[in-house]
Write a structure and sequence with these properties.
Aspartate Aminotransferase, domain 1, single chain, alpha/beta, Aspartate Aminotransferase, domain 2, two-stranded parallel sheet, 409 residues, NHTrfase_class1_PyrdxlP-BS, binds pyridoxal-5'-phosphate, pyridoxal phosphate, aminotransferase, 7-stranded mixed β-sheet, 13 strands
Length: 409
């Protein structure tokens, strides 16, 4: 008779990772996985960036490297170069010494540590996430014991236009209690692929500043979205230029293809140097009993690439290759749907940004994509564009055409 483990019923599987399990169990040779949040090359394979291979080869020859613990706050060269990559070399807040950062376990760990900090110092703040948003946002705050009633949504996606619901978003922010935390996607919004343009970001920033709200930026796709690192950081840099306090969670999973190395950085932008230092000291105090100190390998790769001109240029080329392939697949999918005469407008596929497309397929249509065509995608209609290639795109386009014509809303 168990005293401790007997009465526990299993937790539900993670919806995203479970798609891959179901895909792996599917025996059909024409199956396609559009569910995972990772880049795939033209052959449907994971891609180790050539710059990463090059650096790993250099590392294997460098016998001065060791496996000592990093400091609690992580690898200094990584934290500093990652922070500059995000905020830009000209950033006034850096010059004024009011920025600090701590290396975390990729983007998820960065947001989680930020949430732990907020729970400790601002337990009464409401947390606003986009509707819809990346599934983990809500979970992270829930698991830091923010009550469900405090985790609120702001309208984001307008299903009629398949674009941004700016008015809805602004109105919700205007009504948010002061000191609420607003979780924003820096670029390549997941799952919708819809980003505000500059003018819209300015309007969003105005309300956030005026209402004394605090942005928590989630930057998981810098450079990966447009192929341009500065363009993809514009929103964050704009908010920083307005003098706001904020947290920025940075991930190098996608833009370096370092998914399992968990290289992330949580940046704090404060009003002055002593505030920034105090916040960092508490972030360290929170990290120590959580993971104690972060892993080195991914951070070392990123720092090496960012701090060497040639390697940095090599990385840009790798990034552009990924961004260009994604764009080409978006265009090809649109072309195929047009050729099939699939009912509806599909231009959103090329207008959306980043890895994902929010197709507009209904839950039922998504189910039939999987049951009849062995195409795996999220029930909200999100597909990973990287899962497409020249071998499977006809099958995917025909399946979309089939469900749109034959499966009622
Ligand atoms: C919007 C968003 N934020 C954060 C992450 C964090 O990913 P990781 O923890 O692998 O860096 C992801 C990954 O899919 C994401 O899509």
């Amino acid at each position: 008779m168990s005293l401790y483990f007997g009465d526990i019923s299993p937790a539900p599987p993670d919806p995203v990772f479970n798609i891959t399990t179901r895909y792996n169990n599917d025996k059909n040779s024409y199956k396609v996985n559009l569910g995972v949040g990772a880049y795939r090359d033209e052959n449907g394979q994971p891609w180790v960036l050539p710059v990463v291979r090059e650096i790993e080869e250099m590392m294997s020859q460098d016998h001065s490297l060791n496996h000592e613990y990093l400091p609690i706050e992580g690898l200094q060269s990584f934290r500093e170069s990652a922070t500059r990559l995000m905020l830009g070399n000209e950033c006034r807040a850096i010059v004024e010494d009011r920025v600090r950062s701590i290396q975390c376990l990729s983007g998820t760990g960065s947001i989680r540590l930020g949430a732990a900090f907020l729970k400790r110092f601002h337990p009464d703040s409401a947390i606003y996430v986009a509707k819809p948003t990346w599934g983990n946002h809500r979970n992270i705050f829930k698991n830091e014991f923010f009550p469900e009633s405090m985790i609120k949504e702001y309208p984001y996606f307008d299903s009629a236009t398949r674009g941004l619901n700016l008015e809805g978003m602004i109105n919700a922010l205007k009504e948010a209690p002061e000191r609420s935390i607003i979780v924003l996607h820096a670029c390549a919004h997941n799952p919708t692929g819809v980003d505000p343009n500059r003018e819209q970001w300015e309007a969003i920033a105005d309300v956030i500043k005026e209402r004394n709200l605090m942005p928590l930026f989630d930057s998981a796709y810098q450079g990966f979205a447009s192929g341009d690192l500065n363009e993809d950081a514009w929103s964050v840099r704009y908010f920083v230029s307005l003098g706001m306090e904020m947290l920025i969670a940075q991930s190098f999973a996608k833009n370096f293809g370092l998914y399992n190395e968990r290289a992330g950085n949580l940046i704090v932008v404060a009003k002055n140097s002593s505030d920034a230092a105090a916040v960092l000291s508490h972030l360290k105090a929170l990290a120590r009993p959580m993971w104690s100190n972060p892993p080195n390998h991914g951070a070392r790769i990123v720092a090496t690439a960012l701090n060497n001109e040639d390697l940095r240029a090599h990385w840009f080329r790798n990034l552009q290759k990924m961004a260009n392939r994604i764009r080409a697949m978006r265009e090809l999918l649109l072309e195929k749907l047009r050729a099939l005469g699939t009912p509806g407008t599909w231009t959103h596929i090329v207008n959306q940004i980043g890895m994902f497309s929010f197709t507009g397929l209904t839950v039922r249509q998504c189910e039939v994509m999987t049951s009849n065509h062995s195409i795996y995608l999220l029930p909200n209609g999100r597909i990973n564009i990287c899962g497409l290639n020249h071998d499977n795109i006809d099958h995917v386009a025909k399946a979309i055409d089939d469900v749109v014509r034959n499966i009622e809303d």
